[in-house]
Specification:
This is F-box domain-containing protein. The structure is a single chain. The chain is built from 19 helices and 14 strands. The chain is an alpha/beta fold. The strands form three sheets. It has a six-stranded mixed beta sheet with strand order 3-2-1-4-5-14, with helices on both faces. Strands 6, 7, 8, 9, 12 and 13 form a six-stranded mixed beta sheet that branches. Strand 6 and strand 7 form a beta hairpin. The protein is globular, with a radius of gyration of 25 Å.
């Protein structure tokens, strides 16, 4: 049924386009082929597939006109790519312009004239890129054509603080990842994502961010990587949610940052709110709660696994205390663990930090403050809604109930008109948005000197 709908849309759009231009693509010296109805000819092209359809375009100008129709190649993209059409459309319409991104008012005009035959060819020829997410707690790495990482590493434990741009440390980090992926650095370009650090809009913070980016590029180019795209995690999280503007709540390893982003640019001048608790804080707090019930576990990795599989965010903390929430999880080699109120008390410190002995803003207070700053800044007169969507990112953002609870708490602090939606980002790194980001950039890198791209 979906196939018929898409095909019908393609045929109607293509025929209306040809009529509007007063052209009959089959009026040419092609003999008996002139009598083939347009609908049949179009379906023959679909049946032939993209490679043969491209060859058909060389027969004559009229056939070339039909074959180059955008809707034919949109249909090929629908059918031959692993990712969804929504992701392809977003990446090609919004990210292809490069950085800085085009304003929203320009995107609709650009998307109409995109040469999808050329886009299909470029995506098919793109060999892919190595993707490295250098998180401060855990790093992920893999291949741009894969939907999930191929490996993980405990960054801080194994490599130290990567936010400190020491050449030897960064070199060891990247060399280890390439070794584990069994890839030579010189064969593919690389997309590198690093956590937001040096948050403020001061000259010293700007210099520190620039120093880190330059250190990353210097190491990778010394390893003969052909091209580097360096981009921060918050922007990637927004792209993975198919957005270019919004507020990203990045629950990182050590801290949580609330980051305003406009057209792919982190708005340091508006202000990034930083809350001094992250995934590690929740893991340590769960370990403490378990210790109170004589469940003593030495390994934080074990506690983290229990947190990821048993914990959730309560919609109403007081009401949840009166409910039996007991649940168990079995870890291979370590036995079965049973938790009750610890399951929702762990994440509650995001909204009630004092429960964990922390003196700091709650998560919803930080988000509301960021929204107030965005509203006061008035960065663009054309669009005063750019900051009204909140995107949750990071492993802890996957805790069940978090978006609903944050929405509830925000309603008590800001007006309903101040924000529109709260959603989770699918991933920092892996997905077609990143492939769409890498394809136009790295298509430029063939046979030329090393390139760098900043965000």
């Amino acid at each position: 049924m979906m196939w018929r709908r898409v095909l019908g849309l393609v045929l109607n759009k293509s025929k209306s386009k040809l009529k509007s231009q007063n052209l009959n693509p089959l009026l040419s010296s092609t003999g008996a082929f002139d009598r083939i109805p347009f609908d049949v000819f179009f379906q023959i092209l679909i049946f032939l597939g993209p490679k043969e359809a491209a060859r058909v375009s060389a027969v004559c100008k009229s056939w070339k006109f039909v074959v180059s129709d955008n809707w034919l190649w949109i249909l090929f993209l629908h059918n031959s790519q692993e990712e969804s059409w929504e992701n392809i459309d977003f990446s090609e319409s919004c990210l292809r312009s490069g950085y800085p991104l085009l304003l929203q008012s320009s995107l609709s005009d650009q998307s109409i004239s995109l040469p999808y035959m050329h886009i299909y060819s470029q995506r098919a020829q793109h060999r892919g890129a190595v993707l490295i997410d250098g998180g401060s707690g855990y790093s992920k790495f893999g291949w741009s054509k894969d939907s999930s990482p191929s490996g993980y590493s405990a960054t801080f434990k194994e490599f130290g603080d990567l936010e400190s741009p020491m050449y030897s440390r960064l070199r060891h980090f990247f060399a280890t990842i390439y070794d584990r992926m069994q890839r030579k650095p010189s064969t593919q370009p690389v997309v590198v994502a690093f956590p937001i650090c040096h948050y403020y809009d001061t000259e010293s913070s700007k210099a520190a961010r620039r120093q880190l980016e330059e250190a990353i590029c210097r190491v990778l180019f010394d390893m003969n990587v052909p091209a580097v795209c360096s981009i921060n995690q918050a922007v990637l999280a927004l792209y993975a949610a198919r957005r270019t503007s919004g507020i990203v709540v990045n629950i990182g390893f050590r801290v949580t940052s609330v980051v305003p982003i406009l057209q792919g640019k982190v708005m340091h001048q508006v202000g990034i709110e930083v809350v001094g608790q992250g995934a590690l804080t929740l893991t340590v707090f769960l370990k403490e709660l378990m210790g109170r019930k004589n469940m003593h576990v030495e390994s934080l990795y074990t506690v983290r696994t229990l947190k990821e599989n048993l914990c959730y965010i309560a919609s109403d903390y007081e009401s949840e205390l009166s409910i039996d929430t007991t649940a168990s999880y079995e870890l291979t080699g370590e036995g079965q663990f049973t938790l009750s109120e610890e399951r929702f008390q762990t994440g509650e410190i995001l909204f009630q930090p004092r429960m964990g002995g922390l003196r700091m803003m709650s998560l919803h207070q930080a988000v509301a403050l960021c929204m107030d700053h965005c509203q006061a800044a008035k960065e663009t007169e054309e669009n005063d809604r750019w900051f009204k969507t909140v995107v949750l990112a990071g492993g802890t953002a996957c805790l069940p109930g978090l978006p609903e609870r944050l929405r509830k708490e925000l309603c008590g602090l800001v007006s309903a008109a101040t924000f529109e939606d709260i959603e989770r980002s699918s991933s920092y790194l892996f997905g077609s948005s990143i492939r769409g980001l890498a394809t136009p950039f790295f298509g430029l890198a063939k046979g030329v000197q090393p390139l760098r791209f900043w965000s």
